Amino acid sequence: MGCFFSKRRKAEKESQPEGEEERPKQYSWDQREKVDPKDYMFSGLKDETVGRLPGKVAGQQFLIQDCDNCNIYIFDHSATVTIDDCTNCVIFLGPVKGSVFIRNCRDCKCALACQQFRVRDCRKLEVFLCCATQPIIESSTNIKFGCFQWYYPELAFQFKDAGLSIFNNTWSNIHDFTPVSGELNWSLLPEDAVIQDHVPLPTTEELKAVRLSTEASRSIVPVSRGQRQKNSDESCLVVLFAGDYTIANARKLIDELVGKGFFLVQTKEVSMKAEDAQRVFREKAPDFLPLLNKGPVIALEFNGDGAVEGCQLVVNEIFSGTKMFVSESKDAALGDVDSFYNFADIQMGI
């Protein structure tokens, strides 16, 4: 007894007109749009301004190499980006899902967001960075870092497409694989550095069509002080729990407190378990345990004299209907901040 389907295929073949070849089968992977690597590469350019508009890279890998005195802008999300052997270039990269690797470059100025960042065999770079993990430099000198500060309408969606949180940014927590005794191969840019003085906006008509801003108040990534020396010995931890308006509430809270003269030190978005909540929230943990199942929490550290009272006032006045954790006192805040960020860094492998 033969298989019904094999008999049908045999009958179809016998009914095929003589001289007509059987068409090859079509598979879904055969119908994918072919990718030309040249569309995702800038190579051997000199004295040019070039770029890619939103939607033109769409998560592909990108390569930049052997460019001299060029302005390069990638206004889209990528899988990974490698930058090799470039000199005196300005480079902007939209969110990169994986790694950005810069090798054998000098006198370049960059603004970029990524999951992992590594520099090797480079000298004299300025990098305005958003990085989810600890940035690494190796065999490099005179590398300066600042906090990523950029806006265009598509950028927030590109962060989501790249799987990056705007609140996970360890831009100033640099690890040097090859330190030199008595020398520092990296430093932080001045806090008042104007990003357009380092990474200017594009001037070509095509790229000017992207509605850009480098104002700190409009930046998609909150501008934090990172590991700069704190102005005060008083900090306050505020934790927002997942909900429909969590990101908007976090932005509003940052705007309010920065407007009152406090400093945003660091931010984090991370999932918490019950045991984490017990350690961070202590006696208040039972109030927040049911909220942990809704998704990751967003934590913000503010610094400045009177930070605890200032945070409590703003939360009570503006967010009275929203449940948040706020440090209760100056003394408690020190433990709150240390407990939360130690747990978060361990969970994220930092």
Automatic annotation (TrEMBL):
GO molecular function terms listed in the Swiss-Prot or TrEMBL record: GTP binding; GTPase activator activity
**Lipid-linked residues (S-palmitoyl cysteine):** C3
Q: Which SUPFAM superfamilies match?
A: C-terminal domain of adenylylcyclase associated protein, Nucleoside diphosphate kinase, NDK
Pfam families per UniProt: TBCC
Q: Where is the lipid attached (N-myristoyl glycine)?
A: G2
Where are the annotated segments for Disordered? 1-34
Q: Which residues form a coiled coil?
A: none
Keyword Plastid assigned to the entry: answer is no
Q: Where is the composition biased (Basic and acidic residues)?
A: 11-34
Note the superkingdom of the native organism. Eukaryota
Q: Name one GO cellular component term.
A: ciliary basal body
Presence of the UniProt keyword Lipoprotein in the record: yes
What sequence ranges are listed for the domain C-CAP/cofactor C-like? Answer: 24-179
Record localization? Cell membrane
Question: For binding GTP, which residues are annotated in this chain's numbering?
Answer: G98, S99, Q115, Q116, F117, R118
Quote the biased-composition stretches of kind Basic residues, using this chain's numbering: 1-10
Q: Which GO terms describe its biological process?
A: post-Golgi vesicle-mediated transport
Keywords annotated in UniProt = Cell membrane, GTP-binding, GTPase activation, Lipoprotein, Membrane, Myristate, Nucleotide-binding, Palmitate
Membrane topology category: Lipid-anchor
* Role of this protein: Acts as a GTPase-activating protein (GAP) involved in trafficking between the Golgi and the ciliary membrane. Involved in localization of proteins, such as NPHP3, to the cilium membrane by inducing hydrolysis of GTP ARL3, leading to the release of UNC119 (or UNC119B). Acts as a GTPase-activating protein (GAP) for tubulin in concert with tubulin-specific chaperone C, but does not enhance tubulin heterodimerization. Acts as a guanine nucleotide dissociation inhibitor towards ADP-ribosylation factor-like proteins. Acts as a GTPase-activating protein (GAP) for tubulin in concert with tubulin-specific chaperone C, but does not enhance tubulin heterodimerization.
Subunit record text: Found in a complex with ARL3, RP2 and UNC119 (or UNC119B); RP2 induces hydrolysis of GTP ARL3 in the complex, leading to the release of UNC119 (or UNC119B). Interacts with ARL3; interaction is direct and stimulated with the activated GTP-bound form of ARL3.
- Entry's family note: Belongs to the TBCC family.
Name of protein:
Protein XRP2
Organism in which the protein naturally occurs: Lipotes vexillifer (Yangtze river dolphin)
Highest lineage ranks of the organism? Answer: Eukaryota, Metazoa, Chordata, Craniata, Vertebrata
